[in-house]
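RECORD TYPE: inverse folding
INPUT: C-alpha coordinates
STRUCTURE:
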Protein backbone atom coordinates (compact mmCIF):
# COMPACT_ATOMS: atom_id res chain seq x y z
CA UNK A 1 0.00 0.00 0.00
CA UNK A 2 2.91 2.38 0.61
CA UNK A 3 4.73 1.70 -2.70
CA UNK A 4 2.56 4.07 -4.84
CA UNK A 5 3.06 6.87 -2.33
CA UNK A 6 6.82 6.32 -2.33
CA UNK A 7 6.95 6.33 -6.12
CA UNK A 8 4.91 9.53 -6.39
CA UNK A 9 7.18 11.24 -3.85
CA UNK A 10 10.30 10.08 -5.71
CA UNK A 11 8.93 11.39 -9.00
CA UNK A 12 8.09 14.75 -7.43
CA UNK A 13 11.54 15.07 -5.85
CA UNK A 14 13.56 14.15 -8.94
CA UNK A 15 11.46 15.93 -11.57
CA UNK A 16 12.40 19.20 -13.25
CA UNK A 17 9.58 21.45 -12.16
CA UNK A 18 10.92 24.49 -14.04
CA UNK A 19 9.58 23.04 -17.28
CA UNK A 20 6.05 22.61 -15.89
CA UNK A 21 3.20 25.06 -15.64
CA UNK A 22 3.77 25.23 -11.88
CA UNK A 23 7.28 26.65 -12.42
CA UNK A 24 9.03 25.44 -9.26
CA UNK A 25 9.24 22.51 -6.87
CA UNK A 26 6.32 22.46 -4.41
CA UNK A 27 7.38 23.96 -1.08
CA UNK A 28 10.55 25.52 -2.49
CA UNK A 29 9.48 29.04 -1.53
CA UNK A 30 8.97 28.02 2.09
CA UNK A 31 5.23 27.40 1.90
CA UNK A 32 4.57 24.11 3.62
CA UNK A 33 1.00 24.09 2.32
CA UNK A 34 2.31 23.50 -1.21
CA UNK A 35 3.99 20.26 -0.14
CA UNK A 36 0.59 18.77 0.64
CA UNK A 37 -0.41 19.30 -3.03
CA UNK A 38 2.26 16.98 -4.41
CA UNK A 39 -0.18 14.27 -5.51
CA UNK A 40 -2.53 16.48 -7.58
CA UNK A 41 0.43 18.43 -9.01
CA UNK A 42 2.20 15.26 -10.11
CA UNK A 43 -0.98 13.91 -11.69
CA UNK A 44 -1.60 17.21 -13.46
CA UNK A 45 1.92 17.82 -14.82
CA UNK A 46 3.44 14.36 -15.38
CA UNK A 47 0.56 12.16 -16.56
CA UNK A 48 -1.76 12.17 -19.57
CA UNK A 49 -5.03 14.05 -19.25
CA UNK A 50 -7.23 10.96 -18.84
CA UNK A 51 -4.94 9.54 -16.11
CA UNK A 52 -5.00 12.87 -14.31
CA UNK A 53 -8.79 12.98 -14.61
CA UNK A 54 -9.24 9.47 -13.19
CA UNK A 55 -6.63 9.94 -10.44
CA UNK A 56 -8.02 13.25 -9.17
CA UNK A 57 -11.55 11.84 -9.37
CA UNK A 58 -10.51 8.86 -7.26
CA UNK A 59 -8.95 11.12 -4.63
CA UNK A 60 -12.06 13.31 -4.53
CA UNK A 61 -14.33 10.26 -4.27
CA UNK A 62 -12.30 8.85 -1.36
CA UNK A 63 -12.42 12.17 0.50
CA UNK A 64 -16.15 12.64 -0.09
CA UNK A 65 -16.90 9.05 0.95
CA UNK A 66 -15.19 9.52 4.31
CA UNK A 67 -16.72 12.97 4.81
CA UNK A 68 -20.33 12.03 4.06
CA UNK A 69 -20.07 8.89 6.22
CA UNK A 70 -18.86 10.98 9.16
CA UNK A 71 -21.59 13.61 8.67
CA UNK A 72 -24.31 10.98 8.33
CA UNK A 73 -23.19 9.08 11.44
CA UNK A 74 -23.03 12.30 13.48
CA UNK A 75 -26.52 13.32 12.33
CA UNK A 76 -27.91 9.87 13.09
CA UNK A 77 -26.42 9.88 16.59
CA UNK A 78 -27.89 13.34 17.22
CA UNK A 79 -31.37 12.27 16.11
CA UNK A 80 -31.52 8.92 17.93
CA UNK A 81 -29.38 9.56 21.03
CA UNK A 82 -30.19 13.20 21.80
CA UNK A 83 -33.34 14.41 20.06
CA UNK A 84 -35.56 11.38 20.57
CA UNK A 85 -34.64 10.44 24.18
CA UNK A 86 -34.42 14.00 25.54
CA UNK A 87 -36.54 16.29 23.35
CA UNK A 88 -39.41 14.19 21.93
CA UNK A 89 -39.53 10.61 23.22
CA UNK A 90 -42.73 9.93 21.22
CA UNK A 91 -41.36 11.23 17.92
CA UNK A 92 -42.34 9.18 14.90
CA UNK A 93 -39.88 7.68 12.45
CA UNK A 94 -40.82 10.28 9.85
CA UNK A 95 -40.03 13.10 12.28
CA UNK A 96 -36.69 11.48 13.15
CA UNK A 97 -35.91 11.29 9.43
CA UNK A 98 -36.51 15.04 9.00
CA UNK A 99 -34.37 15.79 12.05
CA UNK A 100 -31.56 13.76 10.52
CA UNK A 101 -31.86 15.71 7.24
CA UNK A 102 -31.59 19.06 9.00
CA UNK A 103 -28.72 17.75 11.14
CA UNK A 104 -26.85 16.74 7.97
CA UNK A 105 -26.95 20.37 6.78
CA UNK A 106 -25.85 21.65 10.19
CA UNK A 107 -22.98 19.17 10.46
CA UNK A 108 -21.93 19.95 6.90
CA UNK A 109 -21.81 23.68 7.66
CA UNK A 110 -19.69 23.08 10.77
CA UNK A 111 -17.35 20.79 8.83
CA UNK A 112 -16.99 23.43 6.10
CA UNK A 113 -16.07 26.12 8.61
CA UNK A 114 -13.50 23.84 10.23
CA UNK A 115 -11.99 22.96 6.84
CA UNK A 116 -11.60 26.66 5.97
CA UNK A 117 -10.14 27.94 9.21
CA UNK A 118 -8.21 24.93 10.59
CA UNK A 119 -4.73 24.80 9.05
CA UNK A 120 -4.05 21.06 9.50
CA UNK A 121 -6.26 18.00 9.08
CA UNK A 122 -3.77 15.95 11.06
CA UNK A 123 -4.14 18.40 13.91
CA UNK A 124 -7.87 17.72 13.94
CA UNK A 125 -7.18 13.98 14.21
CA UNK A 126 -4.90 14.60 17.19
CA UNK A 127 -7.51 16.87 18.78
CA UNK A 128 -10.19 14.21 18.23
CA UNK A 129 -8.12 11.54 19.97
CA UNK A 130 -7.36 14.04 22.72
CA UNK A 131 -11.06 14.65 23.38
CA UNK A 132 -11.83 10.93 23.25
CA UNK A 133 -9.27 10.36 26.01
CA UNK A 134 -10.39 13.27 28.21
CA UNK A 135 -14.17 13.00 27.75
CA UNK A 136 -15.28 9.60 26.42
CA UNK A 137 -12.76 7.28 28.07
CA UNK A 138 -14.14 7.85 31.64
CA UNK A 139 -17.67 7.30 30.33
CA UNK A 140 -16.75 3.97 28.75
CA UNK A 141 -14.85 2.68 31.79
CA UNK A 142 -17.66 3.49 34.24
CA UNK A 143 -20.41 2.12 32.01
CA UNK A 144 -18.57 -1.20 31.90
CA UNK A 145 -17.39 -1.47 35.51
CA UNK A 146 -19.63 0.79 37.66
CA UNK A 147 -23.27 -0.20 37.76
CA UNK A 148 -24.53 2.87 39.65
CA UNK A 149 -23.68 5.42 36.97
CA UNK A 150 -26.62 7.40 35.58
CA UNK A 151 -27.35 10.11 33.03
CA UNK A 152 -26.86 12.99 35.46
CA UNK A 153 -23.36 11.88 36.36
CA UNK A 154 -22.51 11.17 32.72
CA UNK A 155 -23.62 14.63 31.60
CA UNK A 156 -21.78 16.37 34.44
CA UNK A 157 -18.59 14.43 33.75
CA UNK A 158 -18.82 15.24 30.05
CA UNK A 159 -19.09 18.98 30.69
CA UNK A 160 -16.35 19.05 33.34
CA UNK A 161 -13.91 17.06 31.20
CA UNK A 162 -14.56 19.20 28.11
CA UNK A 163 -14.20 22.50 30.00
CA UNK A 164 -10.98 21.48 31.77
CA UNK A 165 -9.47 20.29 28.51
CA UNK A 166 -10.29 23.50 26.62
CA UNK A 167 -9.11 25.69 29.50
CA UNK A 168 -5.68 24.13 29.08
CA UNK A 169 -5.44 25.78 25.64
CA UNK A 170 -5.37 24.40 22.12
CA UNK A 171 -3.07 25.68 19.38
CA UNK A 172 -5.08 24.16 16.53
CA UNK A 173 -8.24 26.05 17.52
CA UNK A 174 -6.32 29.19 18.47
CA UNK A 175 -7.42 28.98 22.11
CA UNK A 176 -4.96 30.45 24.63
CA UNK A 177 -4.35 28.68 27.92
CA UNK A 178 -6.87 30.13 30.36
CA UNK A 179 -5.59 27.92 33.19
CA UNK A 180 -1.85 27.74 33.71
CA UNK A 181 -1.14 24.42 35.38
CA UNK A 182 2.13 23.53 37.09
CA UNK A 183 5.29 23.77 34.95
CA UNK A 184 3.64 26.17 32.50
CA UNK A 185 6.13 27.59 29.98
CA UNK A 186 6.20 29.88 26.94
CA UNK A 187 8.81 29.77 24.19
CA UNK A 188 9.94 31.93 21.29
CA UNK A 189 10.13 29.61 18.27
CA UNK A 190 10.44 32.29 15.55
CA UNK A 191 13.28 34.30 17.08
CA UNK A 192 11.45 37.63 16.93
CA UNK A 193 11.38 38.08 20.70
CA UNK A 194 7.71 37.17 21.08
CA UNK A 195 6.64 34.22 23.19
CA UNK A 196 4.45 32.51 20.62
CA UNK A 197 4.43 28.87 21.75
CA UNK A 198 2.72 27.67 24.92
CA UNK A 199 3.83 24.45 26.56
CA UNK A 200 1.82 22.82 29.33
CA UNK A 201 4.36 20.46 30.90
CA UNK A 202 1.82 19.35 33.50
CA UNK A 203 -0.24 16.32 32.29
CA UNK A 204 -3.44 18.35 32.19
CA UNK A 205 -5.15 15.93 29.79
CA UNK A 206 -4.85 13.08 32.28
CA UNK A 207 -5.90 15.48 35.03
CA UNK A 208 -9.06 16.42 33.08
CA UNK A 209 -9.82 12.74 32.48
CA UNK A 210 -9.50 11.82 36.17
CA UNK A 211 -11.61 14.80 37.30
CA UNK A 212 -14.27 13.82 34.76
CA UNK A 213 -14.28 10.25 36.07
CA UNK A 214 -14.62 11.37 39.70
CA UNK A 215 -17.37 13.81 38.71
CA UNK A 216 -19.40 11.03 37.09
CA UNK A 217 -19.11 8.84 40.18
CA UNK A 218 -19.88 11.68 42.60
CA UNK A 219 -22.86 13.15 40.76
CA UNK A 220 -24.35 9.69 40.13
CA UNK A 221 -24.11 8.83 43.84
CA UNK A 222 -25.47 12.25 44.86
CA UNK A 223 -28.53 12.07 42.60
CA UNK A 224 -29.28 8.53 43.75
CA UNK A 225 -29.03 9.72 47.37
CA UNK A 226 -31.38 12.66 46.74
CA UNK A 227 -33.96 10.87 44.58
CA UNK A 228 -34.02 7.34 46.01
CA UNK A 229 -32.47 6.91 49.45
CA UNK A 230 -33.58 10.08 51.25
CA UNK A 231 -36.25 11.18 48.75
CA UNK A 232 -35.30 14.82 49.28
CA UNK A 233 -36.16 15.61 45.66
CA UNK A 234 -39.45 14.43 44.19
CA UNK A 235 -39.41 11.93 41.33
CA UNK A 236 -41.26 14.38 39.09
CA UNK A 237 -37.99 16.34 38.80
CA UNK A 238 -36.23 13.29 37.38
CA UNK A 239 -36.07 14.69 33.84
CA UNK A 240 -33.91 11.87 32.48
CA UNK A 241 -36.10 9.15 34.08
CA UNK A 242 -33.14 7.49 35.76
CA UNK A 243 -35.04 6.44 38.89
CA UNK A 244 -38.39 5.19 37.62
CA UNK A 245 -39.78 2.36 39.74
CA UNK A 246 -40.51 -0.98 38.12
CA UNK A 247 -44.17 -1.98 38.17
CA UNK A 248 -43.90 -5.59 39.34
CA UNK A 249 -47.66 -6.05 39.25
CA UNK A 250 -47.30 -6.54 35.49
CA UNK A 251 -45.03 -9.53 35.92
CA UNK A 252 -46.19 -13.17 35.97
CA UNK A 253 -44.37 -16.00 37.65
CA UNK A 254 -44.83 -19.49 36.20
CA UNK A 255 -43.23 -21.38 39.08
CA UNK A 256 -45.93 -22.42 41.63
CA UNK A 257 -46.35 -25.45 43.85
CA UNK A 258 -48.51 -28.24 42.44
CA UNK A 259 -52.16 -28.26 43.53
CA UNK A 260 -54.13 -31.47 43.68
CA UNK A 261 -57.79 -31.86 42.70
CA UNK A 262 -58.82 -31.55 46.36
CA UNK A 263 -57.47 -29.12 48.96
CA UNK A 264 -54.83 -30.79 51.08
CA UNK A 265 -52.36 -30.34 53.85
CA UNK A 266 -48.89 -31.63 53.20
CA UNK A 267 -46.64 -33.21 55.77
CA UNK A 268 -43.04 -32.78 54.77
CA UNK A 269 -40.50 -35.41 55.69
CA UNK A 270 -37.43 -33.61 56.93
CA UNK A 271 -36.52 -31.46 53.90
CA UNK A 272 -37.63 -27.96 53.04
CA UNK A 273 -40.78 -27.69 50.89
CA UNK A 274 -38.73 -26.09 48.07
CA UNK A 275 -35.86 -28.42 47.32
CA UNK A 276 -33.16 -28.07 44.72
CA UNK A 277 -34.57 -28.01 41.22
CA UNK A 278 -37.97 -26.72 42.43
CA UNK A 279 -39.15 -30.27 43.24
CA UNK A 280 -42.20 -30.70 45.46
CA UNK A 281 -42.27 -34.18 47.02
CA UNK A 282 -44.81 -34.56 49.85
CA UNK A 283 -44.49 -37.49 52.22
CA UNK A 284 -48.20 -37.74 53.03
CA UNK A 285 -51.30 -35.77 52.05
CA UNK A 286 -54.79 -35.61 53.47
CA UNK A 287 -57.83 -33.50 52.50
CA UNK A 288 -58.35 -30.18 54.28
CA UNK A 289 -60.72 -27.25 53.82
CA UNK A 290 -59.57 -24.76 51.15
CA UNK A 291 -56.96 -22.21 52.21
CA UNK A 292 -56.46 -18.78 50.61
CA UNK A 293 -52.98 -19.63 49.34
CA UNK A 294 -54.12 -22.36 46.99
CA UNK A 295 -54.86 -21.15 43.44
CA UNK A 296 -54.77 -22.34 39.87
CA UNK A 297 -53.23 -20.74 36.78
CA UNK A 298 -51.14 -17.57 36.47
CA UNK A 299 -52.11 -14.12 37.58
CA UNK A 300 -50.20 -10.83 38.04
CA UNK A 301 -49.03 -10.34 41.61
CA UNK A 302 -46.80 -7.89 43.45
CA UNK A 303 -45.39 -10.26 46.08
CA UNK A 304 -45.35 -14.05 45.82
CA UNK A 305 -45.73 -16.38 48.85
CA UNK A 306 -46.05 -20.15 48.62
CA UNK A 307 -47.54 -21.40 51.88
CA UNK A 308 -48.03 -25.00 52.99
CA UNK A 309 -49.23 -26.22 56.40
CA UNK A 310 -47.98 -29.47 57.89
CA UNK A 311 -47.83 -31.38 61.17
CA UNK A 312 -44.48 -32.36 62.61
CA UNK A 313 -43.78 -35.43 64.76
CA UNK A 314 -45.01 -33.70 67.95
CA UNK A 315 -48.39 -32.73 66.45
CA UNK A 316 -47.63 -29.02 66.02
CA UNK A 317 -48.99 -27.29 62.94
CA UNK A 318 -46.42 -25.18 61.11
CA UNK A 319 -46.53 -23.08 57.98
CA UNK A 320 -43.73 -23.14 55.40
CA UNK A 321 -43.23 -20.16 53.07
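DESIGNED SEQUENCE:
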Amino acid sequence: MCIPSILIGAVAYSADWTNTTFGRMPGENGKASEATLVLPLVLQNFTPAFVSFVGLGAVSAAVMSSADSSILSASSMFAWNIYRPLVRPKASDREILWVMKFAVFAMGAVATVLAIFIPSVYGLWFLCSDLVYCVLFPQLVLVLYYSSVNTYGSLAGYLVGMVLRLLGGEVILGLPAAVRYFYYAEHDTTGDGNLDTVVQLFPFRTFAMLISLLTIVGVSALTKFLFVRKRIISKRWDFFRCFEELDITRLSYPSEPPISSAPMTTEWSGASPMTEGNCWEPAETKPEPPVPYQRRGLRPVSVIHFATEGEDNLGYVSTAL
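NOTES: Residues 49-87 form the longest helix (39 residues).
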